[in-house]
Design a protein that fits this description.
Length: 132
């Protein structure tokens, strides 16, 4: 039994998140290419600021952008996002993750609050539709 657990742990460490087989990088590239140029540039800037991307900010999908997204897919913050907040396909969520609050909080050091969090300057009531 211990050998099975050790083998399973080793394989998970090699393969990254359990959902990694639920998407292909070509699907992520497709979602990325559907973004307007400003958003593609912003994605690269956010990936650069988080330490995943070090090439020029040009909005183009190339080897450096793909490597950045592959590294991002292996991060715990993205796995947590998929477990708690994901609404789209894995590829779509990964392509859009550099714009999310969890990304900003985990990698850019910006505060990120959700309803129910102790946030002294947030007024979540403004974002919630009044009950009838």
């Amino acid at each position: 039994m211990r050998a099975f657990v050790a083998a399973a742990s080793f394989l998970l460490a090699l393969n990254g998140p359990v959902f990694a087989q639920d998407y292909s990088m070509s699907e992520v590239r497709q979602h990325y290419s559907e973004m307007i140029p400003f958003l593609r540039n912003s994605a690269q800037e956010n990936l650069r600021d988080a330490g995943f991307y070090s090439s020029s900010i040009d909005g183009a999908w190339g080897p450096a952008t793909e490597a950045a997204y592959e590294a991002l897919a292996r991060e715990d913050a993205f796995s947590e996002h998929m477990r708690k907040r994901a609404q789209g396909s894995v590829a779509e969520e990964l392509a859009n993750f550099p714009f999310s609050g969890p990304f900003a909080g985990a990698f850019l050091g910006l505060p990120y609050y959700e309803v129910g969090d102790d946030c002294p300057t947030c007024d979540f009531a403004e974002d919630v539709a009044p009950a009838d």
